[in-house]
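Figure 2 data, in text form.
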Amino acid sequence: MIDQLPFSPKQSAGLAVADGSTWGIAAGDEEASNVVSHLTKAMQLRPHDAPTYRLLVFANGDGAHSVGAHASSGHPVTIPWLFLPSDDEHAFTCIIPPARNNDILGNQLMQLSLVIARQAQSRGGFLLHGALIEKDGYGAILAGPGGVGKTTASRRLLSPWRSLCDDEVLVVRDGDRAYWAHPWPTWSNFMLDGKGGTWDVSHAVPLKGIFFLVQAQHDRIEPIGAGYSVPLLVELAEQASWSMAHGQGRDVARALRLQRFENICTLAKAIPSYRLYLSLDGAFWDEIDRAITVKGTNTT
């Protein structure tokens, strides 16, 4: 469909996901091209010649109607955030409201990124509220709700550790059932006259551990089993994915929650989890190093 547009897209972008999928994203009208341009910059997207999935974005009903996009009633679709049906399960068409201010733009960017996250979830992944840190090519997630210290901890890292993102992480599983983590943008930075930002979303790292942050006087690590980690992960995944079923009904939302729960249960058996008791000035990254090394998953 992207190649058959009556409007020649000024902005097109792509993304390779570590689960083996690739995306092509294009604007179907002039106003949507501005949104796709912002998405491209924020996620550092790079075009792909033959993507496995395609996302076509419109910011008005007329453009959608011109390429034959209709609701099930047969009428042209103009309501915000409708994902139109397609005979091709690898093609998605989305109608978004015009971006009248930064808050709307930030919401648009978040919702478009959730199209990618939702498809990754259908392949065994999920989006998680957490920070992603990297050392020597492998990654660890600092997980926890807002205010627990993810951003502060990320800023305190010393080389060779580095922060890839501090708010959300896309976890995916590849064909060999190994787990990878992609940094994900902090979309709230684009709202309320925020500073925005860019993240190299395509830079996935093998996931070696998940660390649930607990504020404390001294740094220490406590391993936890799947029985403890699953409910914590479910809550944090729900926070990151709460609008994934936007406007699509309770049945869709329920199915997505069940799918997410099953994916988390599978991951919890494969990836070790810990409580990381975090002080204000300790070298907590050394605790992470020791924990991963004990598990035999350190790549260094």
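Caption note: The mean pLDDT is 85.
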